[in-house]
Design goal:
This protein is mainly α and about 400 residues long. It has one domain. The chain has a four-stranded mixed β-sheet, sandwiched between helices. Helix 6 runs antiparallel to helix 9 and helix 10 packs across helix 13.
Length: about 400
C-alpha cells in the first residue's frame, strides 16, 4: 500500500506494522528449521540430504507451537518493555520541569497549543545532535533528545525538532519504527547467536562432526548406511549445513531489510508537520543544517539510529538509507514552505546561547506561502488549508 497523502500514510503504517509482526513469526520458523537441520547433522552426519530435510521438517512441526509461543512472548515483552530496552542502549533519563525547564516548557507549549497529550521527556548524555520518539500507545510515547542538541540549538530550533517528533507520534510512524526495531533486534540476535554457536562448536570431539566426514564416508558402517539410503552420506551432510547457513543468513538479511518498510517520505511528512505546528520553516531548516553530519550516537544500534531525526548511517549506494538526505529535506522546506537555506553550518558543541550579531534565519518566523499550498507532491498537499497532521485549524 503506497502512502500518497497523510491519512493513507497513517493507514499504511498500521498495515505494515501488522505485516511486519506476521513476518517475525515466519523468520523465526526459518531460523528454527535451519537450527533443526544443523542439529540432525550433528546427531548423524552419514545420512542423505533428503533424510535431513525430512527429519528437520518433522522437528519444525513438533516445535511449531513452542516457536509460536516464544514469538508471541517476545512481542508481549517488547510491547511493555521496549522503552526500557532502548533506554538501556541509549542511557536516556526521564527529566522533569525542574530538571530541564527550558526543554520541558517548549514541549509542553507545543502540546497545549494543539491539545496533544504530552509524551514523556528524556535526555541522553551525548555530544551528538539528535532526537527520537518511541512508544506504541499514548501511555508509552516518549521523546528523547541529546545534551549536544540542547547545547547547539536555540529555542526555536529545538521547538522545531520537538514538533518533528510529535508529528511522528501523530502520524503513527513511531509504532512502525518500534515494530521494525523489535523484529530486526530479535532475528538479528538469533541469527548471530546461531553463527557464533556454529563457529565455536568443537567439531573434532565427535565422530559425527564435520572433521570426521571424510573418514566416515570411507568406513564400512557409513558405507552400509549410504547403501541403505541410496545417497552420498557425508556429502549430503555438507550440503545440508550449507543450506542451513544460507537460511540463517537469509533470515538475518530479511530482518535488516524490514527497514525498507519505513517509507522515507515519513521524514518529509514530519518536517511538514513541524512547520505547520510552529509556523517557522526557517527554524526547521536551521535545525537540520546544524544536525547534519553530527547525529551519530556512539554505541547505538542501527535500529535505534533509524528512530532519530537524522540517521547518518547510509547503506550501499543509499539503497538501504532510512532517511532522505538533509539537502533534499531542506530543498522541500525551501520550495514548499517558503523557508531560507543558510547552507551547511559550522558550529561549536558547547554553544548554549544565541549568537550575537545579525539574526539567523531560524530567528525569523514565516508561515508557508499561500501560493505554495498543496504543491508538495510527495506529501500530497500537506501545506494546503485543509486538515493537516494536527487536524483542521
Amino acid at each position: 500500500m503506497a502512502a500518497y497523502g497523510l491519512y493513507t500514510h497513517i493507514a499504511s503504517n498500521k498495515s505494515r506494522s501488522l505485516l511486519l509482526l506476521a513476518g517475525l513469526f515466519v523468520l523465526l520458523y526459518v531460523l528454527f528449521y535451519a537450527a533443526a537441520l544443523i542439529g540432525e547433522v550433528l546427531a548423524d552426519s552419514s545420512q542423505s540430504a533428503t533424510f535431513y530435510l525430512t527429519r528437520a521438517s518433522a522437528d519444525l512441526v513438533a516445535g511449531f507451537p513452542y516457536v509460536t509461543a516464544a514469538a508471541a512472548a517476545w512481542i508481549v515483552i517488547a510491547y511493555f518493555f521496549h522503552q526500557s530496552i532502548i533506554d538501556a542502549v541509549t542511557d536516556g533519563q526521564a527529566v522533569t520541569r525542574q530538571e530541564q525547564p527550558r526543554l520541558y516548557n517548549l514541549l509542553e507549549n507545543l502540546c497545549i497549543s494543539r491539545g496533544i497529550r504530552m509524551p514523556a521527556l528524556k535526555v541522553m548524555e551525548s555530544p551528538a545532535l539528535n532526537a527520537f520518539a518511541t512508544g506504541l500507545n499514548q501511555r508509552q510515547y516518549a521523546i528523547t533528545v541529546t545534551t549536544g542538541l540542547l547545547q547547539a540549538l536555540n529555542d526555536q530550533e529545538i521547538e522545531a525538532v520537538l514538533g518533528h517528533e510529535l508529528t511522528h507520534i501523530r502520524n503513527g510512524d513511531v509504532q512502525l519504527m518500534v515494530v521494525a526495531v523489535i523484529i530486526a533486534g530479535v532475528v538479528g540476535f538469533l541469527g548471530e547467536l546461531f553463527f557464533r554457536l556454529f563457529s565455536n562448536l568443537d567439531w573434532s570431539s565427535s565422530g559425527n562432526g564435520p572433521s570426521s566426514w571424510p573418514a566416515s564416508s570411507s568406513s564400512s558402517s557409513s558405507s552400509s548406511r549410504r547403501d541403505s539410503k541410496g545417497s552420498g552420506g557425508g556429502g549430503g551432510a555438507i550440503i545440508i549445513v550449507i543450506v542451513a547457513i544460507a537460511l540463517i543468513a537469509l533470515a538475518w538479511l530479511l530482518s535488516q531489510v524490514v527497514k525498507l518498510a519505513l517509507s522515507r517520505s515519513r521524514e518529509f511528512l514530519a518536517d511538514a508537520g513541524s512547520v505547520e505546528l510552529t509556523k517557522n520553516p526557517d527554524a526547521m531548516i536551521m535545525a537540520l543544517r546544524k544536525i547534519e553530519g553530527r547525529g551519530e550516537l556512539p554505541g547505538a544500534t542501527s535500529a535505534v539510529m533509524e528512530l532519530c531525526v537524522d540517521n547518518p548511517r547510509e547503506g550501499f549506494a543509499d539503497l538501504f538509507a532510512t532517511h532522505p538526505s538533509v539537502q533534499s529535506r531542506v530543498n522541500a522546506l525551501v520550495k514548499f514552505a517558503g523557508g531560507h537555506d543558510p547552507g551547511p553550518q559550522e558550529l561549536s558543541f558547547n554553544t548554549s546561547t544565541e549568537p550575537e550579531g545579525e539574526p539567523q534565519p531560524s530567528e525569523v518566523r514565516q508561515s508557508p506561502s499561500p501560493e505554495s499550498a498543496g504543491a508538495l507532491d510527495p506529501i500530497a498537499g500537506l501545506w494546503g488549508h485543509h486538515a493537516g497532521p494536527w487536524g483542521p485549524h
